[in-house]
Amino acid sequence: MIKLIEMKNDIKNKNVYHQIFNDAFPIEERWNFDMLFENKNNSSYKLYSILDDDNPIGLTMIWRFEEFYYGEYLAIDKNLRGKNYGSQVLTKIFDMHNDKLIVIEVEPYDLNDTAKRRIDWYKRFGLILSDYDYDMPCIKDGKKDTMKMKIMTNREIKTKEQYNNIITTLYNKVYGPRLESIYKWKD
Fold first, then answer.
1. Quick check: 9 and 37 in contact, CB under 8 A?
2. Using an 8 Å Cβ cutoff, are 150 and 108 in contact?
């Protein structure tokens, strides 16, 4: 049975989760793994271990903001992909957070085959791909950089203003504080 258990800094099997994280995301999309625990006392941020019974199989991260939930990461152990775990986890996340908009980020469709497959997989769950690209802050070669991303949502974004409000929240609540803490960077 699939369970999502909130992780704390003293989580057992931390190295297993670190490996899952590294295997699942390109380096440009990965923040320092220990940084994922940075907001453990912040009630708007939860890092979950994904367990099948008591076996670690993945991790996911969910932010709760006033207007929406933001699913920052969802990763299943690369050796267990294709066994329906991701679908079970996504269904559980939707059940847990069905009271408002859910937002995730994806690489643009035309980036590579993995990005295309990922978007198509999320679409099967009813997620809607935004028409707009945006520049997601990232760290590349040890320096502040950006990469093109899109968002997908479980409900239609009706206006460009609503879209801009989502991106502004992500910049101000997620990326800005991380970059500031790493490089003392501020806009």
1. yes
2. yes
CATH code for position 157: 3.40.630.30
Cα of first residue to Cα of last residue in the chain, in angstroms, is 45
List CB contacts of 66: < 8 A, sequence separation 6 or more. Answer: none
What are 99-134's pLDDT values in tens digits? Answer: 999 999 998 877 778 889 889 999 999 999 998 888
pLDDT digits (tens, 9 = 90+) for 6-23: 887 667 788 899 999 999
Please state the domain count of the chain. Answer: 1
User: Residue 186 to residues 65, 171, 179: CA-CA distances in angstroms?
Assistant: 22, 11, 8
Give the containing element (helix H, strand E) for 21: helix 14-24
Q: Which residue has the tokens 């049975």?
A: 1
Cβ–Cβ contacts within 10 Å for residue 174, how many?
20
Tokens 């999502």 sit on residue: 4
**Residues recorded for the chain:** 187
What domain range includes position 71? 2-183
For residue 124, what are the contacts with CB-CB under 8 A and spacing of at least 6?
Answer: none
